[in-house]
Amino acid sequence: MTNFSTFKDLLSYCQEHHVSIGEAALEYEVARGERSEADILLGARKILEQMRATIESGLYSDEPSMSGLSGGFSKKVMAFSESPQSFMSSLEHRMIAYALATLEENSRMRKIVACPTAGGSGVVPGVLIALTDEKQIPMPTLEKALLAAGMVGGIVSQRMHLSGAAAGCQAEVGVATGMSAAAIVEALGGTPQQALDAVAIALKNMMGLVCDPVAGLVEVPCVKRNAVAGIHASAAATIALAGIPSFIPLDEIIDAMVSVGQMMPPQLKESAEGGLAKTPTAVSFTERLYGEQPD
Ligand code: SF4
């Protein structure tokens, strides 16, 4: 079986074998010969259960993070969803709140599923668990959606390092957004072409996203960025499911992201030496937190 080093390979396989991306991912994992199909699906289910457990433990918690930069955000969004001012759907409120809950738990040093990284760990759980709660997605479909997300992250990771230090936040929250867009399309029964168009549309709009964490902590802008990214993934999936393709093929977008990551200065790659990390508010907070600016 092919190693799927490109999205073109993946799409050809799906179209030739009449399978979805999640099903292709399952066949790929079985072909590796390390685990049975049942074990792989059980593993996916356990990951989904941990995603839900993280969300449930964080969703209504007021506990601040150790730095005090986050805590209580997801609870506020859930409360706001009931207010007369709320204007988004229940699904969208859940996507936002669930992603916030996951990143808040990460900031409290609790257990999360790195997806693809800790910094980007809220987007996939936010959209998948919210979709399940609002649209009653059955577990077998949800498992395939997670596998589809994993396949997207896996192919991208063969071409670029998934870390803010290597390529900016486009490689963390950006890739998580693409993974989420594919998962939504898979969960809602879209075609492999639509899933990859959703990834492409999501990634085009995340390209160039810098990594500039305040005080070097994965909190500002990361916590809220994950929540906004879930809505971004939903918009990309909606565009693709409506039958609107990406003009630029996904493999070319990945090449462009790699190139942008290489051009990005080190100040914008997790060093906390540029962007938001160097705003007066961030510098002042960092001095209070550490006593002095870290080297
Ligand atoms: S800004 Fe940097 S630390 Fe925060 S999620 Fe993005 S890549 Fe990770």
Structure description:
There is one protein chain. This protein is mainly α. It has one domain (7-144, 162-290). The chain is built from 13 helices and no strands. The structure holds iron/sulfur cluster (SF4). Iron/sulfur cluster binds at residues 119-120, 164, 169, 172-173, 211, 213, 218, 221-222, 270. Iron/sulfur cluster (SF4) binds next to loops.
How many strand segments?
0
Distance between the termini: 48 Å
Structural class: mainly alpha
Helix content: 55-70%
Q: Hetero groups bound?
A: iron/sulfur cluster
What oligomeric state is this? Answer: single chain
- Please report which band the strand proportion falls in: under 5%, 5-15%, 15-25%, 25-35%, 35-45% or over 45%: under 5%
What can be said about this structure in brief?
The protein is mainly alpha-helical. The protein has helices at 7-17, 21-31, 37-59, 73-80, 90-107, 123-135, 139-159, 164-167, 173-187, 192-204, 222-241, 250-263, 280-290. The radius of gyration is 19 Å and the shape is globular.
